[in-house]
Design a protein that fits this description.
The complex is a heterodimer of chains A (249) and B (244).
Chain A: E1 9-13, H1 18-29, E2 33-38, E3 53-57, H2 65-77, E4 82-85, H3 100-124, E5 130-134, H4 147-167, E6 173-179, H5 185-193, H6 195-203, H7 213-223, E7 235-238
Parallel strand pairs in A: 1-2, 1-4, 2-3, 4-5, 5-6, 6-7
Helix pairs in contact in A: 1-7, 2-3, 3-4, 5-6
Chain B: E1 11-15, H1 20-31, E2 35-40, H2 43-53, E3 57-61, H3 67-79, E4 85-88, H4 103-127, E5 133-138, H5 150-170, E6 175-182, H6 195-203, H7 213-224, E7 235-238
Helix pairs in contact in B: 1-7, 3-4, 4-5
The chains are: A alpha/beta (249), B alpha/beta (244).
Chain lengths: 249, 244
Amino acid sequence: MIPTSPHPAAIVTGAARGIGRATMNRLLAAGWSVVAVDREPVVGIDAATEDRVLAVQCDLADPSMPSEVVAKAVGHFGGLGLLVNNAGISGAKSVAETDDGNLAQIMDVNFTAAFRLTREALRVMQPGSIIVQVASVLCIRATPGTSAYTASKAALAGLTRQVAAEYGPRGIRCNAVAPGLIETDLTAEKLKSDAGHRRIWKDGTPWPRLGRPDDVAAAIAFLASADAGFINGHILVVDGGWSAGATAA
Amino acid sequence: MDRNKRLDGRLIVITGAAGGIGAEVARQACQEGARIIVSDVRESDGQALASELGSRARFVRHDVTSEDEWSSLAETCIAEGGVHGLVNNAGIYDPRLIEDTDAAFFDRNMRINQLGTFLGIRFVQKAAAPAGASIVNASSLAGLRGTKGIAYTATKWAVRGMTKTAAVELAPRNIRANSIHPAFIDTPMLAAMSREHFEARAKSIPLGRAGTADDVASLVLFLLSDESAFITGAEVAIDGGLSA
């Protein structure tokens, strides 16, 4: 999908693996340049698109990093047309088990860093620019034992609607995707070892297969395209019907 | 991926396709390589659209409230290898206050907007291609919120609910179902609303403009295509941020 934003440079956080990596690949194929942010090195970039990738290795929980990342995007590519806040960490604890340290760690990465990046991006974005947040289907339907993670993603969904209402009049669209269980190296391991997790997610997903990183990337690429030009403030579920059902977890 | 062939060779039925959003969906789906059945009760407009679209499109006079007509459409589609997509777009929009809504008017809304959509879902259950199918049901902002026009609102909430049941029940057969929730799309259907009211309300939309049939058709195409392969049971608002 052709970039229609006023500037063809995008920031994708958590770009080393999984959904972030698949998103980077989709955006590059669509003609975007990408600032690929991750705590880990972003390796294995196709030589054909290398000149359109700026890898930035950093910890976004550091309060100074979001403004630095946006400054790097503007410095290197001359502007910013798209922000994809994908970086996140999981946390499988109940409310009682979540101490202040766990809570701060999850909120810092999943919400506060995304909020700061959104704020810094909005300072430089021109009308026509786009923001896509990667929330979670847990914003819509809960399961036991993911309290701080769910809260952090629900905060991100609230921010999405808020930015849509505040910046829509300036021609900036903000939407989110809400993935269900997406099979990655990390989730595959847990699905194998944790029967309860398997029951909730694999058995609870009506669609015959689980999600793939590219399923979410395709939804992000759609929201970032002109095809989604009248979609603003929406939380798009990509969950194989998990949140549509009422099956007991 | 060849973006020009997202629906290459697939058989897509679009109800209420003779005008407005339905016609735009038919045009875009045709450009993406689909075979199109233009379903409508408006014969001359439907015929004209089918001729405009060329050999891959045909018009079928089709009343969505008729079980028999859906059955014969199912036979046609099965004979051609099954249906890959249905856009349940046909509907009436005539918002009336509670005091002006009697049983006969309520029933008319239910038959066209709700029963028609249900029969369409049942048609796909019967006539889907072996590889699966995608159902896109036209709900509305009125299916997400309360709006003046109680009968219309009732049917659009029903469409949203039926979509979720269809998503859950038909997933094992690779049949997806999603609802779309447009608001303030500039089409002839909004003639029920005065132009002044329409323009005043359009300004209250965060994006500051009304939507177009093209905006909605682009979303429908995404939901019909494999780009949304893991999206089912979703309720997608397309309203410029009005419901955000």
